[in-house]
Each structure stands twice: as C-alpha cells, then as structure tokens.
Amino acid sequence: MINILDNKGLHPELTHNVARNNNIAVFATICGIIFIFQILFSTVPLSILGTWVCLMIILSLFRLFMGYKLLRFKNANREWQHSTLMFIISTSLVGLGLGISAVLAEYYSTVQEQLFIFALMIGFSGGAVATLSPVLPAYITHVFGIMIPQVLALFLARDDSSLFDSEDLERLIGILGVLYMIVIIRAGMILHKTFLDSVTLKNDLATARDLAEAANQAKSKFISSVSHELRTPMHAIMGYSQLFEIDDELDEEKKEYSRQIMLAGNHLLTLIDQILEISKIEAGKLKLNIAEVNLNELLRECERLMQTLATKHQVLLTLNEPNQEISFPSDRLRLKQVMLNLISNAIKYNKTGGTVDISVESLSNRMIKINIMDTGHGIPQDMQSEVFVSFNRLGKESGEQEGTGIGLVISQELLASMGGIIKFKSEENVGSHFWIELDSSFFDEAEKN
Question: What predicted TM-score, i.e. pTM, was given to this entire model?
C-alpha cells in the first residue's frame, strides 16, 4: 500500500500543510455532526443516531490525532509514510460516516430534513477541495465516502419519503450528483497538481540557490587563493624593476622600460587587490569598524590626496565645505575608499581645464548626501545601465586612462554594507553628478537584529 501511495504525488511539505489546517477541518466536521444530530433527532431512532454520533466523534478525534502526528514530519521516511496512510484512512472513514447520514435521512426523515442533509453533504465535499486536495488520496477517498452514499440514497429512494415527485427526477438528480462528484474530484486533482508544482519549484529554486551559493563560495575561495599566489611573483618583478631604475650602468631607454614594468606591475597589483576586495564582500567576510566620522575632515583629507592627480590632468578640484561640522556613523576607511574612487574617476575622465566639485549636505537628522560633480565627457545614455557592471569600462578600455572597471562595483557594495547607495546623473559632453546617500537608521536596525 505504501508503494502505491508513493506514486500519488504525496510530498512531506504538502502533508504538513494539510496537517496544520486539520484541526479547523475537524472542528467544522464536529459542528456538522451536531447540526445533523439536531436535524435527525426527531425521526431517526435514538439508538441508531447515538451510535452514529459516537462513531463520528471517535473518527474525528482519530483524524485529529493523525493530523498532529503528521506535523512532526517535514522529510519523507517510513514513519511519515505510515502516518500519512493512517491519516488517509481516518479522513476516508470520516467522509463515509458523513455520507451515511444521508442514508439515515433517506430512510427515516422528512423531505425537508433530506434537503438539509443533501445541502450539507455538498458543502462538506466542496470544502474538502481546499483542505484535503494537497494530499490527493485523502481527498478522493473522503469525497467518495461523502458522495457515494448520498447518490445511492437518491437512486434507491423510497416513494413515500422521496425528495422529488417523480422517480425519473430522482434518477436525474442522482446522475447530477455523480457529475458533481466527478467535477469536484477533477478540481481537487488540478489544485493538487498546482500545490505539487509549487513545492517542486520551491525545492528546485532552493537547490539552485544552494548550488549557486556553493559555486560562489568556491569561486571566491579560488580567486582569493590565485590572487594571493599572484602577489608574490609580482612583488619580485617590481622589486627587480626598482633595482634596474637605480642601476647607473643602464641607459635611459632601459630605465624607461623598467618604469613601464613598474607601472604595469602597480596596475596589476591594484587589480589583484580589488578582486580580493570583491571576493571578501561576496563571501561575507568584510569587517566594518563603525564609528562617528567627521565628514568635513574626511573630505578635506580626500581633497588633499587627489590634488596631485587633479594637477596632473589640469582639472580644478574644489571642496565646498558646509558652515557647520557634520559627523555621521560609518566605517571611515571604507567611506574614504569610496570617496577616493569617485573623485579619481571624476578627475581622470574629465576634460582639460574641467572642474570637480565636492560637497556634503544633511538631508535629515539621519541622512546625509555627498556630491561629486564634474564637467567631464559624461556617460552616453545607452551605457548608463552598465555603470555598475563589473569589468565594464564603458568604452574606455583602449583609452589613455588605466582602470579595472570594478571600482564602482566595489564602492556600491561597500556602501550597501553600510546602508548607503550611489546614484548618478550624467549628460554626454556636459558632465556627471555622482552622489552618496547614507542613512544612520541602518545601523540601528542592524543592532536590533
């Protein structure tokens, strides 16, 4: 029997969901039993009706007990299979018991009482679509148990207590009852398939997510390992290049070659450092040191550090300080890293004689905004969606300016870890406006969590 059930689309998550709502279904069944008892009390012999009520209460409690047992299982095993089988038996017997009430009404009750019981059985079988269809065998046997005695009672109706005036009409209603039973069983099967597909999709997505996370962790570990391995020979290459530069026996041309090796080596080391930074962020190993940061002082420091680069590119770098000191909770080192990246981009991709303006403003007691505005070449409209794509230099790959194409990606991730965001506006041949928004409430929520 268990092997047969295995082929009926049973799933531990679906049985668990049915079991969670089982107490409500049992409560509704007991209410129905009481209602049927009141309807049949005056016509059905008390010994028969009392026996029926006692059996129904026992079967309902048995179903309740098996539902609670199913709540313990979220994975398939033999004990789960056994409990599921017993739950299916309990729902089948409860359904059959309800159906028997229609037979009692047919043989002992008036037309009005038969009508009430008929409507109640239709309601019970319809309600099972929602409560039992995830466990298809339980649903089908429950509906059969309810409807088959009802249909048989219609076909075998006594002439003196018939619900209808003609025998042919009784048979017609019986046929309609059979059709109704087929329709709701079909509806339950469709709903069951929907439930099963959703669980399968959910599990597939969870498996895919776990695989993606595992692959991402493996990638980050591989990148970190390779990057560390690359640093050692790079330091050796750059060390020998420095020795060549101070060697008086080398002519100027060879010293120039040595300087080019140094420049290329520094560029490669920068790339290695940035790749390591990304791997740390993706692996969740980035550690932040959150403290109150004097933004005025931080921006002045960034301006001083960038003045040499601005002079080299003939760009005017200006800091517009606010009238009052602004302090804000953040990781000073990481925020400085983001600021230097944004300012250096504004300088490197500017025009000769262009300007870069830095400013900071308070948006509220908990939010600040840092602006970096330049009069550079701007970003074409069709490339603006790729600004935060790794290793994408927006068509500047063959230009004079060195870069890796991941500085903005790192900046975005660093700010996200501190509850901030980067936004920008840019117009080609006019300039770009990048700004940072930071919200201190992010750290309050982080502390609560």
Answer: 0.54
